[in-house]
UniProtKB/TrEMBL annotation, chain A:
EC number: 3.2.1.52
Name assigned to this protein: Beta-hexosaminidase
Entry keywords, A to Z: Glycoprotein, Glycosidase, Hydrolase, Signal
Organism, scientific name: Cardamine amara subsp. amara
Organism phylogeny: Eukaryota, Viridiplantae, Streptophyta, Embryophyta, Tracheophyta
Matches recorded under PANTHER family: BETA-HEXOSAMINIDASE, BETA-HEXOSAMINIDASE A
Keyword presence, Transport: no
TrEMBL record, chain B:
Residue ranges occupied by any Beta-hexosaminidase eukaryotic type N-terminal domain in the UniProt entry: 35-164
Active-site residues, as the UniProt record annotates them: E336 (proton donor)
EC number(s) reported in the record: 3.2.1.52
Family, as annotated: Belongs to the glycosyl hydrolase 20 family.
Species: Cardamine amara subsp. amara
Signal peptide residues on this chain, from the entry's feature table: 1-24
Reaction catalysed by this enzyme: Hydrolysis of terminal non-reducing N-acetyl-D-hexosamine residues in N-acetyl-beta-D-hexosaminides
EC class: hydrolase
Domain of life: Eukaryota
Name of the featured protein: Beta-hexosaminidase
Key words of the record: Glycoprotein, Glycosidase, Hydrolase, Signal
Pfam family, one: Glycohydro_20b2
Residues in Glycoside hydrolase family 20 catalytic domain copies: 189-493
Amino acid sequence: MRGKGANIAGVLPLFMLFIAGGISAFEDIEKLRIWPLPAEVSRGGRRMILTGDFKLVTEGSKYGDPSGILKEGFDRMLGIVKLSHVISGDQNSSGSTGSALLEGLIVIISSSTDELEYGADESYKLVVASGDKPSYAQIEAKNVYGALHGLQTFSQLCHFNVKKKIIEILMTPWNITDHPRFSYRGLLIDTSRHYLPLPIIKNVIDSMTYAKLNVLHWHIVDTQSFPLEIPSYPKLWNGAYSSSQRYTFEDAGEIVNYARRRGIHVLAEIDVPGHALSWGKGYPALWPSKDCQEPLDVSSDFTFNLIDGILSDFSKIFKFKFVHLGGDEVNTTCWSATPRIAQWLKKHRMSEAEAYQYFVLRAQKIALSHGYEIINWEETFNNFGSKLNPKTVVHNWLGTGVVERVTKSGFRCIVSNQDKWYLDHIDAPWQGFYANEPFQEIKDKKQQSLVLGGEVCMWGEHIDASDIQQTIWPRAAAAAERLWTPYAKLAKNPNKVTTRLAHFRCLLDQRGVAAAPLAGGGRVAPLEPGSCLAQ
Amino acid sequence: MSHNLLLLLHLFIFLSLSITSSLSSPSPADSHPYLWPLPVEFSSGNDTLSVDPAVTLIVAGNGGGSPIVRAAFERYMGIIFKHVSSRASLLAKIRFLRMVEYDYDITSLKIIVHSDSEELQLGVDESYTLMVSKKNEQSVVGAATIEANTVYGALRGLETFSQLCAFDYLTKSVQIYKAPWYIQDKPRFKYRGLLVDTSRHYLPIDVIKQIIESMAFAKLNVLHWHIVDEQSFPLETPTYPNLWKGAYSRWERYTVEDASEIVRFAKMRGINVMAEVDVPGHAESWGTGYPDLWPSLSCREPLDVTKNFTFDVISGILTDMRKIFPFELFHLGGDEVNTDCWKNTTHVKEWLEGRNFTTKDAYKYFVLRAQQIAISKNWTPVNWEETFSSFGKYLDPRTVVQNWLVSDICQKAVAKGFRCIFSNQGYWYLDHLDVQWDTVYNTEPLNGIEDPSLQKLVIGGEVCMWGETADTSVVLQTIWPRAAAAAERMWSTREAVSKGNITLTVLPRLHYFRCLLNNRGVPAAPVDNWYARRPPSGPGSCYAQ
């Protein structure tokens, strides 16, 4: 027997289990457990079971999946819904409960390209089950990367039923229409303060897909170390911490490829001229002097030739349309303190501030010549905004009000105000990450359209392989919903979403991501025994 | 963008850069091999050998064809060649290169396993020899050879082999420095354990597997699974299906099949899983499904000693678990039994009076009856030390006593002829966050036991990762790197771990091993932390923190 009666019989035992577990059954069934919340959702009350040979169907799709991006995404999805459980129940008969079988997922993609383009349509429609084929779920998307988002949402609808030992979806039919609010949803990692091994970076990328983040901002180099191979200037990675804390050029290409196949852009950054001391380990001529090693020597063409070499090499592997040129926290005293540079300043009638501007603008031109659009930290705008290339995207970090001024001046902007979205501020609780609105007080539609999105920043001074994931998660997830979900659907009071976020944090844990408890700021160990769902 | 304080930072970094540069690059010229734990015997030379990414596996001996060996070989190839996108896709490339006659020094790995038995039990032969040398007159093919009596010895040899392999960033190839290598190795103790606690916090299956995988890197060989405690009962027990109602939630559970998969996964890595049900004291969660197990609704622990039902449930659990856990040891707990509830509950009190039992008599009665149930299922009981200190002479002589509380308990237990596992809380409890790596390292399980025949009764030791404040988000960094310090203590010879200034002889190798764990994706915490699982104190090289 199918239909309503059977359905209740199916749900009831689970209902009992929730009570046993001390979790409110009512909430668990009534509330959505999807993070980030989709734009539009409707659901029913019927349970379906995934069959043992649950398959991907692509008939009718214009996308040929030439390099297996969709198939791999589908296989990964199947892996994570199992949560490493052994699926030993009867998956191929509806059994006495009358639950319907779900035999596969139809994915229909209208674009044939698998180019990952910034700003391309990431929307998808997900129905479980399809009207035409009631034993299939269906995802429709403009391109494969939208479909990958659909797979993520699908994975969150699936549950492992511990009693029946099968994968099921409750509350079908589901009808979900979804698209991101912002096209730039970033996470910064910093491999200069601490080297992050390749498997760790890949783990971070995987975890980003669960929250539908789409830009990995890779702050590769800084004062402390230069871990990346630059073929044009092979001594640069002499500035690595050690002979083994390095990324080959191929490793970087592999990271970009790994991310791309998951719909994630990699934004490479070289932070000039201020955060670049480690460059001089291999090429001491880049330092103003041996005693005064930062910022990079503004007076020497070699400096710019070298930047040109780096960006030329970058353009071979970092295919994202943007490159980040830093430009923050430039303390120019070394320039005046070094006689050679002081003379050069005098000759060119430049103040230190003008030399800073000269440096940034010249670096911008080099990046443009390699086909990149530029992102710079906000100090460049604050100091000489009117001179910046109009294609510049200004990356906010310091102050409030910057976004307003940047967009008013016609520049695009990425929001990362440190008080709310710096993950290394471990006293910053998730509620602040959730509530941080990129539009702030901006009402003007045109200005709003210049806000590309936002980014949470995992600066690495106290972050290495041992604590990166729990410092990122779950707080980055709170920002991810802010960046994905339509404004009208966001909770005005973050505490309203605590249960759903706790659920998502446990989901991350179950998937092997070391997401920290919600209680407190970042990276808190649990204070006492308890359920993951309650901490 | 980042923190201000730049000038100060620069100064600091400058200093630390100049300091670390001397420490940070583990150079092949260093005198100590960067192997963890240190093998019993080893000799090395001055050759640098390149390892073919398409290195082939050649097996020999009765056990050479074991799927355990084949699977381990593939795992370790993934670890050794992680810097190239994937071994499989590389094979094609390599074959192409072959046409231009690129010569690698090591093109095959030969694994000889003499025994075809894959039985994994306490005391299984884990010894191996490993030879790595260049082509010579005897062998036209340059090769590495692992020879072992059992597949589990071969696994240990593979781990050592993987630690000899280093990715060289200049040639972008995997190299073995200081060859030829000749290594002969075996463990000092047969029981080298790590406890995980899935009752205080549920650990997802994937996380347990990460822990098991990481144990193999340090050659630990027993996962002591403290499955249940008063807080939650996450495991399915088919005979008493209401027991896992004591789980925290429907999500935080293991099915029987999940548990079997964990045991299988561990076995593939040469790791035994010792299950524990801690009775009668740490068992409140059992009563969520079967309230009759509680003395009363208001007084819920220890388990009701008066009812046959209590022992029927224990027997049922053990019957179910016997199908999952093939290891000969089974842990029955028996620690921290507060018997007030027995005294204060009328029907229990009457029962005590009827038998003329003190509460201590009842505690003994409970533990001994549970022991007999375990023995009847062909298990050797392990009990926490309170059982020995309270009524040692009544314990079944086969009992293995596990120390935690008193530092000389193993000394006393072996003197009475019992076997013992050393886990003293002051040194080897990983939830004691203030215990640093050197304290863990310097703790000797055989302290105070001089007689070699008594020493033999100390079967090994165990570091304990109690779960009150350790969940998925922090468990691996609380375990590592300190568990590695104990792992070397238990594997390497007593002489090797007891001599010299460990800051010079051990610390650089431990730094290296911690970075190796990180490189393999294990979030091991900095070694130098004065407090476990803290973040690194500032920017710096992994090899210097």
